[in-house]
Amino acid sequence: MVENINKIKRVFLIVLDSFGIGELEDAADYGDEGSNTLAAIVKSDKFKAPNLQKLGLFNIEGVDHSMAVEKPLASFARLKEMSKGKDTTIGHWEIAGIVSNKPHPTFPNGFPKDFLEEFSKRTGRGYLCNMPYSGTAVIERYGQDHMKTGDLIVYTSADSVFQIAAHEEVVSLDELYRYCEIARELLKGDDLGVGRVIARPFVGEPGNFTRTPNRHDYSLVPPKKTVMDELLEEGKDSIGVGKIYDIFAGKGIAQTHKMKNNEDGMNITIDLMDKDFEGMCFTNLVDFDMKFGHRNDIDGYANATTEFDLQLGQMMDKMRDDDLLILTADHGCDPSTPSTDHSREHVPMLAYGKMIKEGIDLGTRTSFSDIAKTISEAFSTKGEIEGNSFYKNIVK
């Protein structure tokens, strides 16, 4: 057991999904040389983030320091991804204390025929597409055929995902979710074990299809213990907001709150600040990635950051003396590059609270898992997870 220097009661860990801050050394191996999500969005006139700036976002090593502040309010670091990959599941697992030495499989040429035949047999439906595709483009291309035949639109991306798109009037949500559970059962092992199976329901008419907010992710169960598991073992609270529950297949998450969008997710998180609990609230803000990064929408991404920054100010004002706020990301998704896929980037880490030292530059650290180890030390859990804690460096 680690003796607390000071007693943190609540941690609010917020992942700005895909908020990368510059290419990793091995970015070229992933086709991401030159990617820098933050550098892309700050050029937009929609970008205004005074609270992130005050905390020290632009003081982080490797970030353009022209917007740095003299006295940052937070301690800060640039984090490398030690795991092999750049997808949501692997990124979040590493943040929670699991380093993945082998990437989840990807299917640039589509999924194997044997798997699809078994999937079709179990669902009683045929399939369309089976190629890497943009989520909005795939329903535009195959939506009408799907409505005529009832065949499921299955597709992937550069990430380790198997996605099933279906019109809600053709395939009910319950059916679609059941089909995803079938796929999740089949997609296991080193060869087929994709990081996520994703339900992608949509509505509308040919020429005017729209994806609905009823998406649901089915992840692999984390293979090892996370910091959330350790918190639960110690009788602490572990709360997920957004798709955190889905990313970890429910493991280590005792309470979950679904959200409609970034604003709703932040409102839920801010409301939870009024609750008396001891442990962690883990929030994922997916709109940065899903709505803007993957659609190469620079202004949309920048505006989403501006809107988040306003709510961040509300959080900062509401923080109790024993609260710790940590902001980070799980990978990049540079909206200025030709690619619409995730990018292999460093991510920021900003740690803020009344018990936290201001302006401590932790430099560049070797793993996202340092966040998990720091939270583990803050709560004096067993610390069996991976990572190197920076708790003693930042607590007053």
Describe this structure in words.
This protein is α/β, with parallel strands linked by helices. The protein folds into 2 domains: 268 residues, Alkaline Phosphatase, subunit A; 107 residues, 2-Layer Sandwich (Alpha-Beta Plaits). An 8-stranded mixed sheet has the order 10-9-11-1-12-13-2-14, sandwiched between helices. Strands 3, 4, 5, 6, 7 and 8 form a 6-stranded mixed sheet that branches. A hairpin with a 4-residue loop joins strand 4 and strand 5. It is globular and about 65 Å long. The N terminus is likely disordered.
Radius of gyration: 21 Å
- How many β strands by DSSP? 14
The number of distinct helices, counting runs of at least 4 residues, comes to 14
Q: What share of the residues lie within helices? A: 25-40%
Largest sheet: 8 strands, mixed
Model regions low in confidence, pLDDT < 50 over at least 5 residues = 1-5
Question: What's the name of the CATH homologous superfamily of the largest domain?
Answer: Alkaline Phosphatase, subunit A
Q: Looking at CATH, which topology of the largest domain would you report? A: Alkaline Phosphatase, subunit A
CATH architecture of the largest domain: 3-Layer(aba) Sandwich
Number of domains: 2
| Shape designation | globular
Report the top-level CATH class of the largest domain.
Alpha Beta
List keywords for this structure.
single chain, 396 residues, Alkaline Phosphatase, subunit A, 2 domains, 6-stranded mixed beta sheet, 14 strands
Could you outline the blueprint of secondary structure elements for this entry?
Elements: E1 10-16, H1 37-41, H2 50-55, E2 75-79, H3 88-95, H4 113-123, E3 127-132, H5 135-149, E4 152-156, E5 161-167, H6 173-186, H7 189-192, E6 196-205, E7 208-211, E8 216-219, H8 227-233, E9 237-241, H9 244-247, E10 255-257, H10 262-272, E11 279-285, H11 287-293, H12 298-318, E12 323-328, E13 347-352, E14 361-365, H13 370-378, H14 391-394
Parallel strand pairs: 1-11, 1-12, 2-14, 3-4, 5-6, 9-10, 9-11
Antiparallel strand pairs: 2-13, 4-5, 6-7, 6-8, 12-13
